[in-house]
Specification:
With about 110 residues, the protein is mostly helical. It contains four helices and two strands. Helix 1 crosses helix 3.
Length: about 110
């Protein structure tokens, strides 16, 4: 049998703001404004919802930027593009910091 996840009150409040399907994704700022929950918490709760199996993805292209619940493979893959770009950018940043010269970095800037 499928395991059911119990949602906290805050998780339910945020989930109610996330639309199903790509037609009208909601901006995090709008969720913050409507729920009066700060942005960091909203993002953390969205990660928690995803960890519970809710396919919340983001869309960051064109006018329809925001988060939504993917309803099909096309929407899932489209939503994962943003996460993949973000992951790649974070990996580059980690590499840059790891390779930075801790003693002489100041002498390398003008």
């Amino acid at each position: 049998p499928m395991r059911k996840h119990k949602l906290t009150t805050i998780q339910r409040r945020i989930l109610r703001q996330i639309p199903e399907g790509i037609e009208r994704p909601v901006k995090i700022a709008d969720i913050v404004r409507i729920t009066r929950i700060n942005e960091r918490t909203v993002n953390r709760v969205i990660r928690q919802l995803t960890a519970k199996g809710i396919p919340v993805v983001s869309f960051r292209i064109g006018e329809n930027k925001g988060v939504f619940i993917a309803l099909n493979e096309y929407e899932r893959e489209l939503g994962l593009v943003s996460y993949t770009h973000q992951k790649n950018e974070m990996e580059r940043r980690i590499s840059d910091v790891r390779n930075a010269d801790l003693k002489h970095w100041k002498s390398k800037i003008s």
